[in-house]
Give the backbone structure.
Amino acid sequence: MKSFFEGIEYLFVNILFAPLDFLRTLELKSWFVANTINWIFMIICAAAMVYWIKQLKIFEDEGTENQDTTAHSFLK
């Protein structure tokens, strides 16, 4: 049973967390390079939010937006 948990430890510490260890050592050299993944996710989220707001505006301008509280049957 001990070897089973040591195997789980090896999987997480040496394999799955290796990219995070690399980013941790990279941060000492360049903060901006180490956080590029965060910047990419923020750009994707900002683009999705802009798209979503534009779609809401399109439906609002067409008048097809149903903002009644009984728009869904589960709200009755």
